[in-house]
D-lactate dehydrogenase (cytochrome)
Amino acid sequence: MSTTTTRTTEQALEGLKTILADRLVTSQSVREHHSRDLSRFPAVLPDAVAFPQNEEEVASIVRVCAENLVPIIPVGAVSSLDGHIIPVKGGVTVSTRDMNRIIEIRPEDMLAVVEPGVTRKQLNTALRATGLMFPIDPGADATIGGMASTRGSGTTAVRYGTMRENILALRVVTPDGTVIHTGSRAKKSATGYDLTHLYVGSEGTLGFITELTVRLHPIPEMVSSAICAFPDVQSAVETVIECVQYGIPVARVEFLDKVAIGGVNAYSKLDLQVAPTLFFEFHGTPAWVAEQSQIAEEISANHNGTGFKWSTDADERTKLWQARHDALWAARALKPGCEVYGGDICVPISRLAESIVAASEDIAASFLTGQVIGHVGDGNFHTAYLIDPEKPEDYAEAERLADRMLERALAVGGTASGEHGIGIGKLKFMRKEHGDAVDVMKRIKQALDPLGIMNPGKMGQEG
Amino acid sequence: MSTTTTRTTEQALEGLKTILADRLVTSQSVREHHSRDLSRFPAVLPDAVAFPQNEEEVASIVRVCAENLVPIIPVGAVSSLDGHIIPVKGGVTVSTRDMNRIIEIRPEDMLAVVEPGVTRKQLNTALRATGLMFPIDPGADATIGGMASTRGSGTTAVRYGTMRENILALRVVTPDGTVIHTGSRAKKSATGYDLTHLYVGSEGTLGFITELTVRLHPIPEMVSSAICAFPDVQSAVETVIECVQYGIPVARVEFLDKVAIGGVNAYSKLDLQVAPTLFFEFHGTPAWVAEQSQIAEEISANHNGTGFKWSTDADERTKLWQARHDALWAARALKPGCEVYGGDICVPISRLAESIVAASEDIAASFLTGQVIGHVGDGNFHTAYLIDPEKPEDYAEAERLADRMLERALAVGGTASGEHGIGIGKLKFMRKEHGDAVDVMKRIKQALDPLGIMNPGKMGQEG
């Protein structure tokens, strides 16, 4: 495939210019916009940013880059949190901005076919008339392609699964410019290696996703939400475990610690009791929602939860979940001028209480302010440490706290990232978590991207 | 790794004898038992059958076989349906018979850790006291390892997913004898390539699974079942689509055509109306089960379903589902001395009615007797053609009918196998279904099993 053994960036850019004309951009401002994500990692400028409009153009770009050994960094909404899209080895950032068509919605099959640049909100707006929804909600209005690449999830994963469970099929441009499809429109299949799941979560290191077939779910007839305060973290988490074991299909169940509740009260003008708190949401028929809420209330009461009240009022619910989504901004508002250093682990649910307690104790013993919030039904939680970007000692302390939490997660059978992914930030934990399986991953990377041009310096190549 | 470039079977058997003593068996009867599965494909004798007792022994076996270029065929309950475990290139069949320990049950994490030879019924018996269950039910009392390797599913997949959704983690001996682990005990993760899903469904061609961490589900407080007869296939399938779109979490919804109902009536001494029929099952709290049943009854009535009656009587339910599971034997009983040639496709649910109608019309126009039954909530159905094993023309006709059905499935975006897998029988459809993605699969096989010793002549190597 390759006609050179050294990188020939100038030649690549010339070739790309021929394909894309003014949709190959080398201006400083556009390159800067694609030089970093929402993480703490330093910016690296790509050599150029490409805006293809269709799969054929992506395939042409990949072929030109392969011939010239120039890295390709696929990019969606630039909302990743661990440096995934920073072009650490330079190269061409290829944005899905102009590939944002909803190709097909098939309500009768409960699926939609979209280009990778479609955002989740865009898709849900288009679905309004169908009675169906795409429930995965990572907070940001991320692109579906980006969410697939990072195996994203969020608050509703406890009920509807993550991107892992919600992608039926893909179209992918492989690193030699071949277009393949994976999966099918059938709900299940037993034919061949599961390439769909291999590309989901591969963070752009194995190919460029050009089309996704996603599963849709019925918009529930009724939605109710509830809040309950607990005397301690343990009681809150035990309530969640019992709800899940009882088989209540909670649609959301989020934990906020005292600091987070304080922040949310201030930022979103609420007057919640300042205590470890669960936010619940239930989906279903009116009778079933009432029954679920009642069972959850009983279980909460058994664990000394207080102030449980459930509501089907849409305004109240929207306010509550907006407050939850704003928890990160609320945290920042606690200390003006600060930035947030985030953590994201997932553990077996039986180890969740001790994991949260340990993370909280670390924060209490530290000179940094921090909070814990979590998608507790999945055993996934986030820490947010407030750091002064001018102070290296803040940064070092946040890293120390996050790494300690992560080591503890691995020690109890958990994972280094529940939903944010590896990016650059967690490469150092790959071998600790996966052991010799990292070598299997490297062999797959080598087999599918022998030139190493897809998002190099990341998963599959390093770590 | 390999110290020879030609296969040296004698040397391998000597080496294995040293490891396994009398658990390396070369008797004719044991080799014959492992020479074929439940499919129509001709038997091929393995050179020997090995019965390791633990992971270390499996790793030693793999190393000896790799050194001598001798094929390894992993085998569980020998209940595969498409020739998966036939040693088409000879070699050593490695049985999981003696690796059937339940290593750990963690009710609070809703997971169990098992060796690959544990069967689903064995696991459910061990779970009784916990209030949890492992719901995947392919019919046969298959091993968990075998079900994982073939990405098995069955009647409950519509509610609980297939093996794809129910395995959290694996331990695998790779083809060079290295032991790796994949996944974790956390419910979700965004770290690294999804090796768990790569091994699930790989039919023993990429490594030997030595341990599985599976998800458990609460045993529902109440179970109800219902039967409903319909004037035609279309009405039955539309009922299913509407139930799924309404968001009713049916635990099972099975379709049986007229021929199947006739067979079931005769075989299981029932007096069901001879018509296209749905069997439903609902899981949940008593109130919720009642509500689901009522909604399903209303939807059925809208599609001219008759005789809908639901029951929570355990004996009645057991009889019904036993009859469903016996449908294959019931079919055979329709024509004494005959054998069954089976088909297994999965299509987008909107194409299910036409797919079933076309399959039925093919049967009606053929000189063979046949029936259609299906896991219709997933768009998955099976044909069973009754053939006289002495008549090559019966065999040829069954193959023609099955292949026609399969071609139609691919034409409407479906898959060549919903749950039985590729084995030998469906290799010829791999490229038709997956196109150039087959080359990606072959590169993965080559990268992970460069000597080609894991279940050779199957998926990833041929097709």
About this structure: Chain A touches chain B through 98 residues (CB under 8 Å).
